[in-house]
TrEMBL record:
Residues 443-460 have a biased composition (Acidic residues). PANTHER family: PURINE PERMEASE C1399.01C-RELATED. Keywords: Membrane, Transmembrane, Transmembrane helix, Transport. Residues 439-460 are annotated as: Disordered. One of its GO terms (molecular function) is nucleobase transmembrane transporter activity. This is Uracil-xanthine permease family protein. Its main location: membrane. It is a multi-pass membrane protein.
Length: 460
């Protein structure tokens, strides 16, 4: 396996480094703080669309947190062949929101969780098992584009959070925007102009400052904490299971895209070291995606996948320690077992999270650009692929009604920006002659997909 070593950022803590315990805990909490709102938002959105009551919604949120935590721990430390031994934070992906809501309304949640149970391990397990053969179809041009579109299409969600959250009566109010700007400013200033602990914890400190400001202006609601129970036990089969052809096919395609997201996010994480993941890391990461998603479906959790904004934190802070992410996984699992603790975390206003997530999504897109530019020659062929993939992906992201003339199933599939970007990049890169195409030979004087770049082997 050949790995790129140029373009690495300054690493404060390497992959196997363990920071001192106080710093380790705070760095782990920083990862949790950035991802908890978007991770749980999927559950709230689907529950609202299906019309679930408050207690059922709370249960699904718990399961999302619990299995996000378990999957994160497995990624950091591995269980047999499952896990990448990389700092990959896992959470529920927005890739599945539209399909889960539509299928939940039309077929019931039993069909949603039945499809997850069947397709999660079947699709991603197969891809992970055969990834060494399939890897040539996922060169830096393709995976980099997936990372870029993930970052870009999450920006509107981050901006909605910054404005107070969609559906709030005072959406876009000055105090929401001010809180978001305060968090964004504090994070950037601490990261760019300070050293040591304040730089490493810049995002967490910024969220804390924003939370204190929200308390001062009186917009923090503690009612959910008082109403929540201290402890809850997962219930297998709570929603039942049914296997329907349309939901199964839809989720199978979405798990394919989820695999591409994970490949892109893992590449974004290791790009901090100036390299791409090796075969074993890719395989273990994809196994985790599929297996934990299927197991989570038994208990009522939506599929888990790698979280892009947390990959952004690694590139933003230079902290790549998998032990930090392991702590984050433990915290998430505890939150999933204790609704009261989880409710306390979610008292942080959306605008506060919005300021942090806005920064992270931008960092994700930037890391995708770096993946592309470090290992891809920007010639005419590759520029056309970039243009088509990003144009189509951003097109359906910004104007989803443009697909209203298509059948509902096609709207669900082609309305996903990541699907459209990934598939267009994959098809064009495969069938258009070029040095990153798996069907055509690279020039004799260049390694495949790595023009004019010095490389080192990671093989023993």
């Amino acid at each position: 396996m050949v790995s790129e070593t140029d373009g690495a950022i300054d690493i404060e803590y390497g992959l196997d480094d363990r920071p001192p315990w106080p710093k380790l805990l705070l760095l782990g909490l920083q990862h949790v703080a950035v991802m908890i709102v978007p991770a749980t938002a999927v559950a709230y959105i689907v529950a609202g669309a299906v019309g679930l009551d408050a207690s059922t919604t709370t249960y699904i949120v718990q399961m999302v947190l619990l299995f996000s935590g378990l999957a994160t721990i497995v990624q950091a430390y591995t269980v047999g062949p499952v896990g990448a031994k990389l700092p990959v934070v896992m959470g529920t992906s927005f890739t599945f929101v539209g399909a889960a809501a539509t299928i939940g309304v039309n077929y019931g949640l039993g069909a949603v969780f039945g499809a997850i149970l069947v397709t999660g391990w079947a699709v991603e397990g197969l891809i992970g098992w055969q990834f060494k053969r399939l890897q040539k179809f996922f060169p830096p041009l393709v995976t980099g584009l997936v990372v870029v579109i993930i970052g870009l299409y999450l920006v509107p969600s981050a901006m909605n959070n910054a404005a107070g959250g969609v559906g709030t009566a005072d959406y876009g109010a000055l105090h929401h925007l001010s809180l978001a700007m305060l968090v964004l400013t504090v994070a950037v200033v601490l990261n760019m102009f300070t050293e040591g602990v304040t730089r490493l914890l810049s995002t967490l400190i910024a969220i804390a400052v924003g939370y204190v400001a929200a308390l001062v202006i009186g917009i923090v609601n503690f009612a959910p904490v008082a109403e929540a129970a201290w402890f809850a036990i997962p219930q297998p089969g709570r929603f039942g299971f049914s296997v329907e052809p349309v939901p199964v096919v839809t989720f199978a395609f979405l798990f394919l895209v989820s695999a591409m997201e994970t490949v892109g996010d893992m590449s974004s994480v290791t790009s901090a070291e100036g390299r791409t993941p090796d075969d074993e890391e890719f395989r273990g990461g994809l196994f985790t995606d599929g297996l934990v998603s299927s197991i989570g479906g038994i208990f009522g959790a939506f599929p888990v996948t790698s979280f892009s904004q947390n990959a952004g934190i690694i590139n933003f802070t230079g902290v790549m320690s998998r032990h930090v992410v392991g702590v984050a996984g433990v915290v998430l699992a505890v939150l999933g077992l204790s609704p009261k603790v989880g409710a306390a975390v979610t008292t942080i206003p959306s605008a506060v999270f919005g300021g942090a997530i806005l920064l992270m999504t931008g960092m994700v897109a930037a890391s995708g650009v770096r993946l592309i530019t470090l290992r891809t020659e920007l010639n005419r062929r590759n520029m056309v692929i970039l243009a088509v993939a990003l144009g189509l992906g951003l097109g359906v992201a910004t104007q989803p009604k443009a697909l209203s003339g298509l059948p509902v199933a096609a709207q669900t599939f082609f309305g996903q920006p990541v699907i459209v970007t990934a598939l267009s990049a994959l098809l064009l890169n495969t069938f258009v002659p070029g040095d990153q195409s798996p069907l055509f030979d690279a020039p004799a004087d260049e390694p495949l997909g790595e023009p004019d770049v010095e490389t080192v082997s990671t093989d023993d």
